[in-house]
């Protein structure tokens, strides 16, 4: 899993999640004065962790094993679409919801 590409997405609460393949990781903290960022799997019983650089684009190191199946690509895309629609709805209160959804689908 080392040198895998990270895609940063937002959670329902607006926090950053690292998406690597079919697994999502939440940010834990920085190590070695900000040189490495530590991410842990979003499933509570899972011990898998990854470490990235401060630019959050490549996995430098990984540890632990996943004890569960990964998410489907459709589920991840649906989460990204839903969160983007929520953010845009908060920014422009007068725009109709259907118009926001259509524009997000076209931007995809």
UniProtKB/TrEMBL annotation:
Domain of life assignment: Eukaryota
Protein name: FLYWCH-type domain-containing protein
Organism: Macrosiphum euphorbiae (potato aphid)
């Amino acid at each position: 899993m080392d040198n895998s590409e990270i895609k940063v997405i937002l959670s329902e609460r607006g926090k950053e999640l690292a998406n690597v393949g079919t697994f999502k990781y939440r940010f834990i903290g920085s190590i070695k004065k900000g040189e490495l960022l530590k991410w842990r799997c979003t499933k509570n019983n899972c011990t898998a962790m990854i470490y990235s650089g401060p630019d959050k684009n490549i996995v430098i190191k990984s540890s632990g094993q996943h004890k569960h199946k990964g998410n489907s690509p459709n589920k991840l895309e649906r989460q990204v679409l839903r969160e983007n629609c929520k953010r845009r709805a908060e920014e422009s209160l007068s725009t109709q919801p259907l118009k926001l959804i259509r524009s997000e689908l076209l931007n995809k």
